[in-house]
What does this fold into?
Amino acid sequence: MSDTDGKKPLGLSGGARSGQVKQSFARGRTKNVVVETKRKRVMAPKPGTNTAAQASAQGSKSKAGATDAEMQRRLRALQMAKAQEAEDAERRKREEEERAADRERRRAEAEAKEREEREREELIKQKAEEDERRKREAEEARNRPAGAPAAATPPAGGDAGQPQRQRNLGPDARPGGPGNDAKRKRDDDSGKPRGGDNRRSGKLTVNQALRGGEGRTRSLASMRRKQERQRQKGGSSGPQEKVMRTVQLPEAITVAELANRMTERVADVVKSLMQNGIMATQTQTIDADTAELIIEEFGHKIQRVSDADVEQVIDAADDKAEDLKPRPPVITIMGHVDHGKTSLLDAIRNARVQAGEAGGITQHIGAYQVKQGDTALTFLDTPGHAAFTSMRARGAQVTDIVILVVAADDAVMPQTIEAINHAKAAGVPMIVAINKIDAPGADPDKVRADLLRQEVIVEKMSGDVQDVEVSALKGDGLDQLLEAIALQAEILELKANPGRAALGAVIEAKLDVGRGPVATVLVQNGTLNTGDIFVVGEQWGKVRAMENDQGKRVKAAGPSVPVEVLGINGTPQAGDVLNVVRSEAQAREIAAFREQQSKDKRAALGAATTLDQLLAKAKADESVSELSLVVKADVQGSAEAIAQALEKVGNEEVRVRVLHSGVGAITESDITLAEASKTPVIGFNVRANAPARAAANQKGVEIRYYSVIYDLVDDVKQAASGLLSAEIKENFIGYAEIKEVFRVTGVGNVAGCLVTEGVARRSAGVRLLRDDVVVHEGTLKTLKRFKDEVKEVQSGQECGMAFERYDDIRVGDVIEIFEREEVERTLA
Ligand code: GDP
It folds into this structure.
């Protein structure tokens, strides 16, 4: 059965050859299919044309009857194509050449590199082999005396073929058998055309890798062994033993410098800091406490220093025993508030002054001396623990004896305990003055028993702390108190060398309008003379004049004598140490150095060093409002007391921050600072000078004057209460819809509105809502009813509104009118 029977098969005409193919299908069915193959015409190449395909096509077509013109055109096209082809070929050739050159270059480079590598490996290998050889030789040398011959004998039972086989298996062996030979030949043949060594240029053969790897491993291992040997050899004197150093640690130090002083690697120090949760770079400054931690971690010793090399010019030589002369004791009175410290100080001074100098109204200089028998006693007229501790904190330990005042009609109170602790911490002996024995209900024994509980055992309780019953008000017991002090002083055997350059401590400092900066200095050792050049804290100067506690000019002040010193270039701080130096240049240098150091220290302390701290700070800052202040006071002591008192004001929501506190009149620079930080300026017993007043008026900075600290603190508390946030209530008072927008020259866009709810009030706050989204919040510039400016427009009425500093208003916008109500809260 055939599909083609009787039909002319559908096929190609003309030059096609046809044939039949029988196709067989499943279940024995077959089918004949006509297959036609188109015969390809073979053309003779046309003379004059070189290439086959196109040219013959052209030729055939010309034979098929193309015109001459067409022929010409085609010929031209053909030539152009040929030219193009030639050009392309040329370009390809060039590119090929370039690529080849490039390949060549790269190969050369790779070869050079490889050669180097090989040489290096070779060297290492040689070295390793050399080591190996030496080791072997040493081994042999050791073995030889034992009688064994040097020549190696073949292993027992080894046949003739054994050495051959072993050689074959060796890394350098050439294959031996005929089969191997043939293989080698093949390898060699195939390797040849690729150019022998070139093969190594890019690719790494297994052999190579093995050889190289083996060499490297061996050399590394041998090097490691060598290192190990060396370490073992030099173990006793080697670098293993850590050198412990005494590290001089200033208040602030850079990480790099710390590493340097410990002779540790900076990276290790940074790592150690990191392990302690402190992220610091090597240039960063860290504070002494952090540095101490690190030094301890590295196992070094710490020596805290506050003076740098610059300060070593300060005469710190120890005094010879024969130069030392007795000096008066320096006494500080401490105790709970209202127990009578001030009264006692006054009583002692008045008693002595009245007994001594006629009509002597003593000038307040922060310290005074009284006579007791042959000796003098120096009292620091700065009651309070803050003064005591802040002076101690600055390195001035001026007090020799503490008088602890306890009121007999009261008991041991928190501040009494504080005072005891301060005295104990400073290692200063105490004398207990049981005051107000005249008062009804006075019970001195109760005080003594109370003190016992604080481990202060007075003499009456068979302890060694002197106790004296006094009445500051009546003047009773004062003599006994002074005697007790003199006795205590005698026990202390206080001595100083009046012959040396003076060393002192600032008790108080202030900026005097007429005299410039003045400081009450208690000379602690040596003698301070007029004309002496000195450095005091971050200031320096030359003693222009000195006045004693009675306001008299003096030329010299010996040990334990308080004097007011004039001639300082700035106001020092209470507790600053005064040192007499040889030259002005030295004084200047030290002062400048200290200033820089304290700046660095502030920076080190101010910078949040750990991430945790940073986060905590950021968190705290977010939720806490701050009331900043600039405080100026008459004396340093007051400024510090105010700053301390103010820092205690506040809670977790509000806090008071003293931006700047200083001594002296309020100046223009204070006003500038206050303006920049939007803070008021507090003047405590000082006034603003005329330019500062003018500046304050102009810049709208508030200045407040006080003369009582409690008033000041109270006011600040109230002000801080005003900062308590959550209590601002917002009341919506109305809504208006914008119906039209007018452009009014000089005013801007004015909205023609209809008050839809409540009232529109001129003074209220407004919000512009567009599709219920607040697009602006502010205040109104105008509220007009017809042509008139009005205060209020009621619901249902039309009005004109324009915003202050906002013009983008559109028809359909809604204006929300609101008022804020502040509900005051107070701080505890
Ligand atoms: P300070 O806060 O420790 O300095 O104490 P003050 O010296 O200001 O004294 C507080 C109060 O105690 C004042 O009202 C004094 O008059 C009173 N006072 C001080 N000493 C005595 C005293 O010896 N007897 C009596 N009855 N009252 C005294």
The radius of gyration is 51 Å.
